[in-house]
Amino acid sequence: MVSCLILYHSTITSLTKCKILRAMFHEEEFEINVIGENTVIIFLWNLDKEKVWQAVVNFETTNMKIGYGFGDRKNDAIKEAEAVLEEWIFTEKAGESLST
Asked: In terms of CB atoms within 10 Å, which end of the chain has fewer, N or C?
């Protein structure tokens, strides 16, 4: 199984996100892709879902937007992660327009 996390934050640099991810998953098999200054994608192989969900909770406490997904292939996992991240951003924007 492949797990995917997409991390987005406008003021935390991609370099910082990469360092955090490397520290968190240093014992795991992973691949990190930097997508611009604000977004980082990590793929993890054969990791328990609980460890991925714990990472999601940890990142949520920093107000970082995060998408997560799982699949048999990288493509499946990233599609699921993108859908979660898009839903998060949509919900946040909808909440902002309701409060203004």
From this structure: C
